[in-house]
Amino acid sequence: MYKKWQFKENNKIRAEQISEKFDIGLLVAQIIANKNLNDEEIKIFLEPTRDNFYDPFLLPDMENAVDRIIKAIENKENIVIFGDYDVDGITSTTVLKKFLEERGLKVRLLYSK
After folding, report:
1. Is the pTM of this model over 0.85?
2. Which of 30, 54, 65, 100 has a CB 3.0–4.6 Å from the CB of 15, allowing a cystine?
3. Nearest 10 degrees: CA dihedral of 85, 89, 95, 96?
4. Ramachandran region, residue 76 (left: φ > 0; alpha: ψ -120 to 50; beta: rest)
5. Residue 112 has pLDDT above 90, yes or no
6. Contact 38, 48 (CB under 8 A)
């Protein structure tokens, strides 16, 4: 499989302005400039709070999933987590595994490839 990388045109002037205004390195400033963020969005990007996170309960059936996990914790059930074998998949399954193990559950991980 061949991938064709596409590079955005660098906005060096905007990156330098962001770097200076927010006291960050030029590389990070360039990434932000490429995202076309305004000053308020840049502040959130650099220093997010919990209020800035995506609400996971907007995902379909999230409440059902949470209820089922709570039931599994209460019943000390064995758990299998099935995750993607990529950077965010491995990270998220590891975080969930640690959370569940801290609650006394036996957890097994399976990954798609």
Report:
1. no
2. 30
3. -90
4. left
5. no
6. no
